[in-house]
Design a protein that fits this description.
Length: 455
């Protein structure tokens, strides 16, 4: 037995790992807005409903990672219901931190104006809870008022840009929930954005490009960047640059050209994290997805020496890990590099958990550091109102060596949690992908899953 374990330990050599796109599989997610805070990368998203025939979006969601391959679902800390003046269209958000508070800017359909408006919510942590900061829209009264993007300049002046098909900005006050001066409409030109503004574009004329929506505004090395969805429908991503925060803008070309993503919209966000630049966008690539069933994805890139963008192509392979997952600390079940079949549910006491677990569903964790000695036990917190099932722990692939099997019994309720453990049956050391494969009676939902760890 000792020799067998040794052979398996030797065979289970560390593997090269890649994350996968789209990086959220438990629901449809849209319009990614990344933010780095305290060494962790957060992504704020919209949420397309299942089988939707329009952007009937009800809430925003937050995901985070510290290794770029394992993403933790933080659920939905903000929804239409949190804005008494709004009744529809929880569209593209952005959240930033200032002086220890988190400001979450969102477009919504306003029941006051009957058009679109931009609201701002505030919270004390990057994952909320958030509440409407002012009890009314920040700006209201135009169908063009969507897709806010926010940036605080080095001199402390904050700017909020937004708009489809016009581009607007205001100078935010230091409180981040009010502004000074008027709403300014940016004049679009061929030099600035590839074409003149929508009201003067000539029908039938071919322009170099065309600002559409989804601006993403930031500064890098003294240059200001405005990235945006362009070209009408279908959308590619293009950008303009400027020496000042309010222009004049210079059209710089495409970043993510059109390709077969299955989504006629695209929407980007850019951030640097752990020394690497990342470009977030969305596609329709999740099973059953499409133009109204979108999913967020990420690519890494390197700026050209002059600060311009390279062309970035959507990939299924995603990005390389920039950290490892420690399985000897509690791992939330809703932390995953990939999953099949499962969804997540909120619970006031335990927080988020993994639900909708059926026979054959699985969760993959990438770049898991099993360390030198290797684990002796697999522990998990589970609940089942029915017959339960089994969690198989497999290494490096779904068909990889089965290192532990944890039977899950009926626990008396879908949220009646019990902690269980099962022995690890062979040596697993070093870096591996871990697959938690769920088995049980075919058909019904088997059990719920809150967290796991190795001992
Ligand atoms: O997600 C709804 C809308 O679709 C966003 O506001 C736009 O940017 C487009 O992605």
């Amino acid at each position: 037995m000792k020799y067998l374990s040794l052979i398996f330990t030797i065979l289970l050599l560390p593997q090269a790992v890649w994350a996968d796109n789209p990086f959220v599989q438990t629901c449809y997610t849209t319009d990614p807005a990344p933010m780095v805070y305290n060494g962790r990368l957060y992504v704020y998203t919209g949420h397309d409903e299942n089988k939707a025939d329009f952007f009937w979006m009800q809430e925003w969601r937050v995901y985070s990672t510290d290794d770029m391959v394992n993403w933790t679902d933080h659920g939905s800390p903000l929804a239409i219901e949190d804005f008494v003046w709004a009744d529809d269209r929880a569209w593209a958000p952005q959240c930033i931190e200032r002086n220890g508070k988190f400001y979450f800017y969102v477009p919504l359909h306003s029941s006051l104006s009957g058009t679109m408006a931009i609201g701002v919510a505030v919270g004390d942590s990057p994952t909320g809870p958030f509440k409407d900061a002012i009890g009314k829209p920040l700006v209201d009264g135009s169908w063009a008022y969507i897709d806010p993007t926010v940036f605080v300049d080095d001199d402390g002046q904050a700017y909020l840009y937004w708009g489809n098909p016009d581009i607007y900005y205001v100078k935010l006050n230091e409180d981040m929930v009010s502004y000074s001066g008027d709403v300014v409409k940016v004049e679009q030109s061929v030099e600035g954005f590839g074409s003149p503004g929508p009201e003067v574009r000539k029908k039938g004329e071919t322009y170099r490009d065309m600002y559409t929506e989804g601006p993403w505004f930031y500064k890098r090395n003294g240059k200001y960047y405005l990235l945006y969805a362009a070209g009408g429908i279908p959308e590619h991503i293009a950008y303009s640059m400027s020496d000042g925060p309010t222009g004049p803008w210079k059209y710089m070309g495409e970043i993510m050209p059109l390709s077969d993503t299955g989504s006629f919209t695209n929407h980007c966000g850019v951030v640097d994290f752990k020394g690497q630049s990342y470009f977030f966008y969305h596609t329709g690539k999740l099973p059953g997805g499409g133009g109204f069933g979108r999913s967020v994805a990420v690519e890494s890139f390197t700026y050209n020496a002059d600060g311009t963008f390279p062309l970035i192509t959507p990939s299924a392979s995603g990005v390389k890990p920039v950290g490892t997952l420690d399985p000897y600390k509690r791992v939330e079940a809703e932390t995953m590099a990939w999953s099949r079949g499962v969804t997540t549910e909120p619970n006031a006491e335990t927080g988020l958990y993994v639900s909708d677990i059926h026979n054959g569903d699985f969760i993959k964790l990438a770049n898991v550091d099993c360390k030198r000695g290797g684990p002796k036990k697999f522990c998990a917190s589970v609940a089942s109102a029915r017959r339960g099932g089994t969690i198989e722990v497999r290494v490096d692939s779904l068909e990889g060596p089965l290192v532990a099997e944890l039977p899950v019994p009926a626990t008396g309720g879908w949220e009646k949690w019990i902690s269980l453990e099962a022995p690890i049956q062979m040596g697993v050391t070093g870096m591996h992908d871990i697959y938690l494969l769920f088995k049980g009676r075919k058909g019904p939902k088997l059990f719920n899953f809150d967290y796991w760890l190795f001992k």
